[in-house]
Write a structure and sequence with these properties.
four-stranded antiparallel sheet; 4 strands; 82 residues; single chain; mainly beta; globular
Length: 82
Amino acid sequence: MGPGTTPIDALAPVGLTLANSPGQSVDVSWEKATPPFEPEQPERSGIQLIHTRSRYQPFAIARWQDEPSSLRSPARGRARPS
């Protein structure tokens, strides 16, 4: 964003889409109210698409390898070795 530009100027009304590989998706919108801190999202949502008011649509894709709860050992608190 450049000087004087606000998020309302840069983002579309539905600002974010969260999705997973099977095709389930949830749109997060700031149009009527601020969304909750942790918006509802599909299980294992590893795809994020940001809807901007420009020709660019930034996105991120992450691959699910493990359950998030299994990445830390409760006894040691460190990441599990690969």
